[in-house]
Amino acid sequence: MFRDQAFGTKTSQVASGTLQSHLNINSIDRYRDYMSRFNPSVSYNRYTLIEFLDKLRIAENDSLTYGGLLMFGKREIIEKYFPDFRIDLLEIPGTSYTDAKLRYTYRLEEQENLWEYYFACFNRLKQKVDVQFQLTAEGFGQELSPGLEAIREALINMLMHADYFSPAHSRIRIFDDHIEFFNPGGLPKSVEELKAKDLSMPRNPIITKLFRMVRLAENAGFGLDKIEQNWHKYNQTTPEIIREFDSTTMILVVKDTDRGADKDTKDGNKWGDKWGERWDQKWPEIETWWKQEIDTNLNSSEIKILDIMAVIPDVTIVQLSNNIGIVESAIDNNISKLKKKKIIQRVGPARGGYWKIIK
Q1: Which long-range contacts (CB under 8 A, 24 or more apart) does 170-173 make?
Q2: Residue 241 has pLDDT above 80, yes or no
Q3: pTM (2 d.p.)
């Protein structure tokens, strides 16, 4: 009840003892690059770093606000103020914990801060919906799908409206037939009232504004209508919202039929079954070729890097990081692996050069 009395103010306070040097500069740079591309007309793009931090209330004088620390801080500093800081994402093989043969098949690794958690969670979640991929005129990847829009909005809402001072923490559980977004902290009003009046009552105003400034969040309300409309358009089901005194859970039902597994082809055969048969037949041949061509298996990030380099040879580390959803240091590490395997090489200087795929 004490935390609810401070609704909308707690994370706006200064975290005593913090310094601007406690910010992760890579996260800040990545955020500013994202803002310059997706909200180029906003005035914050013209500010110096110090002005930028001050105007967006990431920092006040030489200290950080709780919101700024959570969004862009170094993990070891965040944990001094939030000892159990984490966003859990689990993939569970079953429709519930009861019928799951394993506790989970995937668990998200710890990330530096909320900005990095957003990309890591979204990169995993987007694999659960059908998307269409196309390049913009600037050469950036753009993924289109109402299901993707709904999942992105649900994730952003979870990160914006969590009670980070609660002993509980935000959690995403991906089951075979549904996805659960659990958040500590109750809603300030009923779901019906929030939707009917289009109220904007963020628990964490600074974090909310930071997501809005890069156009990842709606400018009003909790985005509930947007989630419902897009998810219903995607697979004709309506999200369920469970509102408790000290938590909120959103459940999105996942239909297998909308994943392509049961879509009929013109000849009346099931596409999923037909593809499975073809894959089983072709895999031994593919595996043999793969081992001959490349003696070491590639991880998913290396494959994504190669996919983008094939289309955009002069792609930058920052662009790869933003498109794939992992930090720049991880991009550097994967590129080093690809170079070591003699799969790619750099042609020309760091500025003005390009990537060449050898294999």
Answers
A1: 170/87, 170/88, 171/87, 171/88, 171/89, 171/90, 172/87, 172/88, 172/89, 172/90, 172/121, 172/125, 173/90, 173/92
A2: yes
A3: 0.67
